# Entry
Amino acid sequence: VRCESLREVRKISPVCNLPALSQSLAHLRMVQIEESKIADIGRVLNDQNRPLKERFRALFTLKNIGGPKALESIGSCFEDDSALLKHELAYCLGQMQDRAAIPILTKVLEDSAQEPMVRHEAAEALGAIGASEVEQILVKYSKDPVVEVAETCEIALGRVRTRGVVGV
# Structure
C-alpha cells in the first residue's frame, strides 16, 4: 500500500504514532534507483562549474531519493563556496530526518569557518531530526559567540527536549 500523504493515513487510522509513521513513510517514498545513478546526481551537486540551478535540482533529487549514498553526496558538498547552497544542504538534511545525517550536521555546526547562516541551518536541521543524542552538541553551541547560531541552538534544543517529553 502506498500512501501519498499523512492525511490519507489519518483516514485509515486517525490515532497513530505520527513520528514513527512518518519515518516509515520516508522509507516508502525512497525510490529504487541504482547507486551509480545516485553517484551521477551527486557529481552534479558537487560540480562547481555547473549553474546553481542544476546543482539545486540535484540536491532536491537526492533529498527525495534518500539513503546513505544520497547523504554522502550531500555531506561532501559542504566545502563549496556558495553559502546559499550550503544552507540548503543543511536544510535538506533536516528535511530528510535521517539520523545518519547527524554527524554531518554536527561537523558543520562545529566548524566556525562555515558561514553563520550555514551553521544556523545545521542547528535547525539537528532540531528537526529531533534525536536525543544531539542534545549535548546543541547545549554546547547555545553559548556560541555568533548570536544567530546560539539562538537557533536554543530553539532546536527546546524542540528536541519537547519531543523527548511529549513523544512527538
User: Anything to note?
Assistant: Residues 47 and 55 are 8 Å apart (CA to CA).
